[in-house]
Design brief:
alpha+beta
Length: 99
């Protein structure tokens, strides 16, 4: 398991995720967005006006759809950060994404 940093225009949270996700985060985000917009996720996250989700939806997707045997989990809320230099040293270089 490796670390990634996710946020949704607020605090950033470090998550422990399966290695393939951290190694190619963009690929897994693309798969998630396809599932969300064109698949079963649409029924859950589209409210008739727009999609309503944040990083927790991505983590739930990983845990239920792709990696049920390697559970992703929150490690630490590191607060609002805007630059790589503000990331705690132990998480610097971790892949990140802001929803």
């Amino acid at each position: 398991m490796k670390h990634i940093i996710l946020s949704a225009d607020g605090d950033s949270t470090v998550y422990s995720v399966p290695d393939p996700v951290a190694d190619d985060l963009r690929k897994y985000l693309d798969i998630f967005f396809d599932w969300l917009y064109d698949g079963p996720g649409k029924d859950r996250y589209f409210d008739g006006w727009g999609f309503r989700f944040d990083e927790r939806a991505f983590i739930e997707y990983l845990n239920t759809e792709l990696f049920p045997d390697e559970v992703s989990a929150e490690v630490e809320n590191i607060g609002f950060i805007s630059f790589e230099s503000q990331v705690p040293p132990e998480y610097r270089g971790s892949p990140s994404f802001n929803f």
